[in-house]
Structures are given as C-alpha cells and as structure tokens.
Specification:
Elements lengths: L6 H27 L1 H8 L3 H29 L1 H20 L4 H28 L6 H26 L4 H22 L4 H10 L18 H31 L4 H26 L4 H21 L4 H25 L9 H28 L4 H30 L6
Helix pairs in contact: 1-5, 1-6, 1-7, 1-9, 3-4, 3-5, 3-13, 4-5, 4-7, 5-6, 5-13, 6-10, 6-12, 9-10, 9-12, 9-13, 9-14, 10-12, 11-12, 11-14, 12-14
Amino acid sequence: MPPVTDNKTATVTILLCALGAIFEGVDLQVAGVAAAGIVGEFKPEPQILGIFFSASTLGLCGGALLGGRLSDRIGRKRVLIVSVAVFGLFSLLAASASSFWALTWARLLTGLGLGGAFPIFVALTAESSPPNRRSFNVALVYSAMPFGGAVVSLLSMLIGSAHWRQLFIVGGVAPLIVAPIMAAYLRESQAFERTIGTEGAVNSHEAGFVAVFAEGRASRTVLLWASFFLGLLTLYLLLNWLPTLLQGFGLDKRHASLAQIAFNLGGAIAALLVGKLLDSSYRRSSAVLVFAALPVSLACLALAPQQSSVIVFIVLVLGILVLASQVVMYAMAPQCYPTRIRGVGVGTAVAVGRIGSIAGPALAGILVARGLATKQLLLTLVPVTVVGGICAITLVWIMSKNLGYADPQ
C-alpha cells in the first residue's frame, strides 16, 4: 500500500468512511437498544429473541463475503455505495414490520448491507492513508461505529421503549442521505486503481477465497480468522444482551442505558489511542496489554457488587478493552493481504467473525432460557477471550516483524 499523494482526497475519503461507519453503528446496535420495546410489543421467547439478534449478523456474514469479493473485481466505491443504501432501506422496512418474524427478516436483509459496507470502509481507509497514520485512520473509522451505538442508546433513553420504531427510522434515513453524498464526493481507492492499471482486472482465481491461503499467508489467515471469530462472539453477545444482563444486576432501564453509552464511548475513545500506538514501536506491548486485561475486566464485572456506580465504571473499562481489541484486529486485517485480494481478505475475516457474532447472541439466549445467571454467563466468556487474545497477539508479533516494527528495549 504506497502512500496517498493527494492529502485532500484522502481526508475526504476517510471522513466519509467515518460518517458511514457512524450510521452502521446505529443500525448494528439498534436491535439491542430497542429490545425492550420489541419484547413488550411482540413478546417473543428468549430463544426466539436470540434468533432475532442473530439475524442481522447472519446477513452480515453473507454481505462481507460478497462485498469483499466484488470490491476486488469492480472497485471499492460502487460496492460501498450500494451496501450503504441497502442497510438504510431495510432498516426503514424494519420500522414498518407488522410481526416479529417480518422484523427478523428485515434485520437479516439489513445485515447484507452492513456486512458489505464495513470491510470496504476498512480497506478503503487503509488504502487511502499514509503508512505512518494507517492504523490510526482505521481506528478512527472503527471508533465511529461505537459512537453511532452511543447515539442510538441515547435516543432510546429520550423516546421511551414504546416508540422503538423511531430508532429504526433514524437508522434508515441517515444512510440513505449519505449514500448519494458518497456517490458525489468519494474517490475510488487509488491503490486499487494502480493495481488494475498495472496488473489488469483481477481474475476469479486470483481474487478467490483460496488466495488468502496462498503464498505463505495461511498462518496469518488462520490466526486472523480465529481472533475475529472469538472477538466478535464476545462483542456481539455484549452489544445485544448487555442492557438485559445489566438489568439482571438490578439496574433500572435508565442506568442500563447509561452503562451501554459508557461501553460505547469508552471504547470509541480508547480505539483512537490504540490506533495511534499501533502506528508506533509500541504496537506489540499495547496489544498485549489490551488482550491481557480483557478477561480480567469480564471477571470483575461478573463478581462486582450490585452498585450502579461500580457496575457502570466496570462496563466503561470493559467497553474500552473490547473495542480496543477489535481495533487491533481491524488494523491488522488489511495489512495481511496485498491490494489485489485485500477486499476478499478483509471480507472473509469479517465473515468468519460474523459466525461468532451469530453464535454469541444465540448462545446467550439459550443459556438465559435455561436459567443461567448473569454472573455465570459473563464468566463463560473469560476463557473465550483468553484464547482469542493468544491468537491476536501471535498475529501482531508476526505482522510486526514483516512491517519492521519492534518494541523499544
């Protein structure tokens, strides 16, 4: 990925990707924050509610695979604009759903757009950034997602659970406004254009899914997939079930929403700091710190006294660590692959992660239905984060050697 020479073009591209990621964050988390109103209206069983939470992530899996593959063949910009318009359109459809299953299908189709968009946000940002700001810019775009989640959590506090459809309307209108702005002002990836110009269009074999294992990339791909799977299992279980779990600690809806906002904002702020560190010689040590502290924070939340202030503070720290760990992975993903297969490389990693996203909320639904307490559910995540952390740190070590980074002695 050679440095971008047109700073103005790069800035506009990164800002538009960040803006789109804000709205992606709204649509990703709207189901979780609207859950109380949805349950009040449709009264689904816990297992069925878990299917609803997993519907969008199932769509995300397919969207990431398809979007990443297409972006390597026809360009990042076209696929991104269509993806943003798709998740906006089907979020509006969800707002008008007359039954729980119609709502679930709308979330599935919303996920197709969400899955197609975010790998391209990451790839396009990485390809538009100079080497000394690449991880920070990816972190900036990634941190826009939890910011969007915080916005929709705040809206849910203001409008009341009975008006949950308004949250889906916001999640639909905003991306449909930004899509034509992207069409007018977003520049196609210059790295992609240079690759097409020098190598010609990428053929099906070169851009195929097998390519992510070719030419010595197998070990980094496996580590990347494992990290994404376990990391997104943890993240989406928490994003979708955190308000319900916090109420299991005795918090009322208001304090649960405040904790959800703290989770998102804390993570968004930390993401920027971690992104900066990943562009420096402290890449390895910052990754070790994040992945070592994550399981500790989960255990602390599980064992915390039932005091609102203590729980909100621990959730803030947990949000910092969970989202910072995701920044590490999203910063690593585009650097694992050359430009000609970067879309499919990032897309397949995100898709594998989405399988974890599907498993996490569905698993929580099953465990809650069987009577597992909030404390026990959180403790089951501790070994998951330990294994995921080992995979991620190993990948950071490998990529740091390839990129010439070393922690200071």
